Amino acid sequence: MSESLRAELRALPDFPPDMPDFDAAAAPDDPVELFLDWLHIAIDAGIRQPHAFSLATATAAGVVSSRMLILKGIENGGWQFASSEHSRKGRELVENPQAAMNFSWLDLGRQVRLVGGVTALSDEESEADWLARPGSDGTVNREWRLYALRPVEIEFWQGRHDRHHVRHTYRPNA
Questions:
Q1: Does residue 116 lie in a domain region?
Q2: CB 149 within 8 A of CB 114
Q3: Nearest to 91 by CA among 123, 47, 125, 61
Q4: For 42-58, b where at least 16 C-beta lie within 10 A, e where not — what string?
Q5: What band does 14 get if pLDDT is binned at 50, 70 and 90?
Q6: Residues 172, 154: contact at Cβ < 8 Å?
Q7: Residues in binding site
Q8: What CATH code is carried by the domain that includes residue 134?
Q9: What is the DSSP letter of 59?
Q10: Cβ(72)–Cβ(129) under 8 Å?
């Protein structure tokens, strides 16, 4: 069964037929500018949930977990997301405030990976985010916390059919 699964998986297409080009030499100096450009291309292409990303966290012992979240914004060098402070990710971020985000726009053959430290934002910012959620009833959720990942590395990845994928890495404040 393993070989038949392997053959079945290898027969699946890896990339869409048409992918955008990416000239890393022409990339802007600011990774936020490039990210916003790629995000808007994904939005214009009709990519479903282009603001969704995988967040990987780890316990103090290094046990890793990941889940999908929604980007709330990018402010003051921090890529914002929110969650309950008492969730698994909230507890892990207290134990080990390092995380990785990965945005994936499969229909464009693109990914953006960020790695860095995470800080919990203020009660006021967290409350404002909770109250701005669709369907909010105006009641404050004291467990809701807005977080910001401040990247030490951001990698933009563009797939290519010839397998010579393009990677462009920023190391802010390095």
A1: yes
A2: yes
A3: 61
A4: beeeebeebeebebbbb
A5: confident
A6: yes
A7: 67-72, 88-89, 111
A8: 2.30.110.10
A9: -
A10: yes
Mean local confidence (pLDDT), 83-97: 96
Inside any domain, residue 5: no
> CA-to-CA distance for 69 and 49, rounded, in angstroms?
10
Place of tokens 């080990």: 96
Answer yes or no: is 14 within a domain.
Answer: no
Residue 126 token pair: 């967290």
- Hey, what amino acid is at 123? D
Residue set of the binding site for FMN? 67-72, 88-89, 111
Q: Are 160 and 16 in contact, with CB atoms under 8 Å apart?
A: no
Tell me the one-letter amino acid at 170.
Y
Domain count, the chain: 1
Rg (CA), the chain: 18
Average pLDDT over residues 104-109: 96
Residue type, 17: P
| Mean pLDDT value of segment 61-84 | 96
**Identity (one letter) of the amino acid at 76?**
N
Range of the domain at 52: 31-170
pLDDT tens per residue across span 40-60: 999 999 999 999 999 999 999
